[in-house]
Specification:
Blueprint: H1 7-77, E1 80-83, E2 86-92, H2 96-102, H3 105-136, H4 143-155, H5 158-168, H6 175-182, H7 194-222, H8 226-234, H9 239-250, H10 252-267, H11 271-276, H12 280-284, H13 294-303, H14 308-340
């Protein structure tokens, strides 16, 4: 006789099945609800971690296109003999351009002129900017006018400033020689005399950049807490002592920054001596190369002699010179920090 199913057990099994199905249904619904949550979490992570990189991508793209690629391509050209008229024809010469530059007297003359003009223009410029910023730091009437006036030479184009100063330093009819004649000094040949030409070019640089550096110093001075000056005044320090003991140490990082910035500008000096030469002598830095800088030598090699390989070699020599200056600056900064500590 076949076994008879127990109605009670069957009903219980059915209820269990329905109960399990009912439990599975909410779990499926939870899974469907978790998917949008996971997507939102993923988007949040991408926004949190990827957004900073997306913001800096334009900068690195522009830097790679207009700075990194020209730097690498210039290094590649410096290892070849290539003329301006046929840039697609390159002859591999390895480091011959560098060895030829090392033995070229014009390179050492241009390097020496760059250093001397840089020193003559940078040292007085920074001292004048420091004094001007110290005066502008006090409460003066129409202080905004004086600050704008200090920045006006920087806003003037290089060509206009160089042309005006060229007329001022003209040998026969220049105002500078006229003023010197009032005190019994004969006319100075500012262009053909080596040191006179370098002083005249340095004067143009000083006039253009003093106000700019003064505003940098002024911004750094205004960031110094006034409590330090009050404490120094209570201790009996004079204005000059406050300047030496409070102001100068407080803006020391800005001073180092302006020194590096001025050094870079001096190594790339080009427009002022080019226009000061008034014609073909401007490219060669005078008849005897008495004020030819590295920038003028680069221009002469590339756009007068049409030797782009040599011009690229001069450009890389300037770049290596800047790296050397930067390393020296870092070394001096570390020594100063170690002495202070």
């Amino acid at each position: 006789m076949p076994p008879v199913a127990n109605p009670t057990s069957t009903a219980a099994a059915g209820d269990a099945t329905e109960e399990s199905a009912g439990r599975a249904e909410p779990s499926r619904t939870r899974g469907e609800k978790r998917r949008p949550h996971r997507r939102s979490t993923l988007l949040h992570r991408l926004d949190l971690h990827g957004a900073p990189y997306a913001f800096i991508v334009p900068f690195f793209a522009v830097f790679a296109a207009f700075s990194l690629y020209p730097l690498i391509y210039t290094a590649w050209i410096s290892l070849h003999r290539v003329e301006l008229a046929s840039m697609d024809l390159m002859e591999w010469v390895a480091f011959d351009n560098y060895t030829a530059l090392w033995g070229d007297e014009r390179f050492w003359n241009a390097l020496f002129n760059t250093i001397t003009i840089g020193v003559i223009s940078t040292v007085p410029q920074l001292f004048m900017a420091l004094g001007l910023a110290h005066l502008l730091n006090y409460r003066l009437r129409a202080s905004a006018f004086f600050r704008v006036a200090a920045l006006t030479p920087y806003a003037t184009s290089v060509g206009a400033a160089a042309l005006v100063f060229t007329m001022l330093f003209e040998r026969d009819f220049g105002m500078i020689n006229w003023v010197l004649s009032l005190v019994g000094v004969d006319n100075v040949d500012w262009e053909n005399n080596k040191w006179a030409a370098q002083i005249a070019i340095s004067t143009i640089v000083i006039w253009r950049w003093t106000g700019y550096n003064a505003l940098l110093y002024l911004a750094a001075m205004q960031a110094i807490p006034r409590d330090r000056y009050e404490a120094a005044a209570i201790d009996g320090a004079s204005r000059w002592q406050q300047f030496l003991k409070v102001t100068v140490p407080g803006i020391r990082p800005t001073i180092l920054f302006t020194i590096v910035l001025s050094t870079i500008g001096a190594s790339q000096l080009f427009g002022e001596p080019l226009i000061f030469g008034q014609g073909p002598n401007g490219i060669t830095g005078g008849a005897d190369n008495q004020y030819q800088t590295l920038g003028l030598l680069l221009y002469e090699e590339g756009w007068k002699n049409y030797q782009m390989g040599r011009a690229a070699t001069v450009a890389w020599a300037m770049f290596l010179l800047l790296i050397l200056v930067f390393l020296i600056q870092r070394l001096l900064k570390r020594r100063a920090t170690s002495r202070t500590s």
